[in-house]
Specification:
Elements: E1 2-6, H1 27-40, E2 47-50, H2 71-83, E3 87-89, E4 100-106, E5 112-121, E6 124-128, E7 136-141, E8 152-154, E9 162-166, E10 170-178
Parallel strand pairs: 1-2
Antiparallel strand pairs: 3-4, 4-5, 5-10, 6-9, 7-8, 7-10
Length: 179
């Protein structure tokens, strides 16, 4: 089974309507793409292709040079990081949500990586318990985050867990690394 063309587009192809193309160039498209890719991993689908016409279309890169990634491009890069993990980990999720997708893996060096995609989500409190890990680095794709490669360090709580609160609702992709 194969999906040969997957992308997130506007509700209307009438480009004269203001805002029609916004979803191509913001976190909504990135959240959709990483959410769907993560959900498809546990199906019988053998191939799925994200459709990008030229370098600058569908929000992968800015312009046709392909040098500056836009939100979907960063989402593809996050997903590629997860694909390079040596093993996939199955998380124990205590309060699952249909508007969130979680992908976990471990690298050759022993770093635990977790990508969480929120698509059309409500507020969420994400708490991680990762035994033996004392440092958590986080990157995120959100419309109010200017640099999806900027790293924030999350300090462990008293019980050793790490917590992140996603309060804006809507669309975001988080990449966590536990060292």
């Amino acid at each position: 089974l194969c999906i040969s063309e997957l992308h997130y587009g506007p509700l209307s192809w009438d480009f004269s309507i203001p805002g029609v193309l916004d979803s191509f160039y913001n976190a909504e498209g990135a959240a959709f793409m990483t959410y769907v890719y993560t959900k498809l991993l546990d199906t019988s689908l053998s191939m799925g292709f994200y459709y990008s016409w030229a370098c600058g279309m569908w929000s992968v890169t800015k312009g046709n040079s392909g040098r500056e990634l836009l939100p979907v491009g960063h989402g593809l890069a996050y997903f590629a990081e997860m694909a390079r993990c040596k093993a996939r980990l199955m998380p124990e999720i205590t309060n699952p949500s249909d508007d969130a997708a979680v992908l976990c893996g471990v690298t050759e060096e022993g770093t635990v990586k977790v990508m969480v995609s929120f698509f059309k989500a409500h507020n969420a409190n994400v708490i991680f318990h990762v035994p033996g890990k004392t440092v958590c680095r986080m990157r995120r794709i959100e419309d109010n985050e200017p640099d999806p490669q900027a790293v924030s360090v999350i300090a462990p709580r008293e019980d050793g867990s790490f917590a992140v609160y996603f309060e804006a609702g809507g669309n975001a992709v988080f990449m966590f690394e536990f060292i």
